[in-house]
C-alpha cells in the first residue's frame, strides 16, 4: 500500500476522499462520517506507520487515518426531489425485524432519491425510503417502531450517484409523495400515521353519485345509510347500505 495507490483507487471509484490507515489499509468515501474528528496531536499520523509499499511514506497509524481529497462536489441530502411532488421527511431507524417500509423495490439503474421515488410512485406507493447506500423501500403506511434521528445518521453515499446521500446501515431516509396542492400525510417520528379525528355522524349526509348520470330522469344522487354491525365482541364494523333499481 502507498498513498498514491490508495488515491488512484478511490479516484477510479469516483470517490472524493481517500484515506490510509495502519500502514496497509485504504478507505474511500465522498463524505467524512461522524463521529470522526481531528487527532489531538498532528504527529499521530506523521509519525505513524510506514506504508507497506513505500517505507518513505506514512500510511496513518493504529486508530488514525490520513485523509486526502480531490476537492470534488460533496454529496447532499435531497430535500425536494426535482420535477416531482416527493419531499424528504427525515432520517429514521430501521431493522430487518421491523421495517419502516415493507416493500423492497428493485431499481436496475441504481438507487438515488430520484430513481427510488419514481419506482415507488409507478408501483402505486406514496412513501419511499433510501437505505444503506443502495436499497429502495416502498409502502403506503409507516411502521410503528421507528425513531426519528438526526440527518447526520443518513450519510451513506448513494452507490449509483456519489453526489447524493442514501440513508445508511439501519437508517432509512424517508420521502413522501404529496398531492399537487401540497397536502399529504407526510412523515413523522416513530412511524407517524394520518391523524384520526372523531366526528359526529349527524353532521354528515352520505350520498352516492353516479359517474354517468341516469338518462331516465332518476336522481343523480342516492342517500346512503350507515349500519354499525358488531360481528365480534367489542369490534364494530361500519357498513354502507344502498338499494337502487334501474
Automatic annotation (TrEMBL):
Does this entry carry the keyword Transmembrane helix? yes
Annotated WSC domain residues: 1-71, 85-178
InterPro entries, A to Z: Kremen_rcpt, WSC_carb-bd
- Give the UniProt subcellular location, in the record's own words: Membrane
Q: Which keywords appear in this protein's UniProt record, sorted alphabetically?
A: Glycoprotein, Membrane, Signal, Transmembrane, Transmembrane helix
The way it spans or sits in the membrane comes to: Single-pass membrane protein
Q: Which Pfam families match?
A: WSC
GO annotation, cellular component aspect: plasma membrane
Chief place of localization: membrane
Q: Does the keyword Transmembrane apply?
A: yes
Provide the protein name: WSC-domain-containing protein
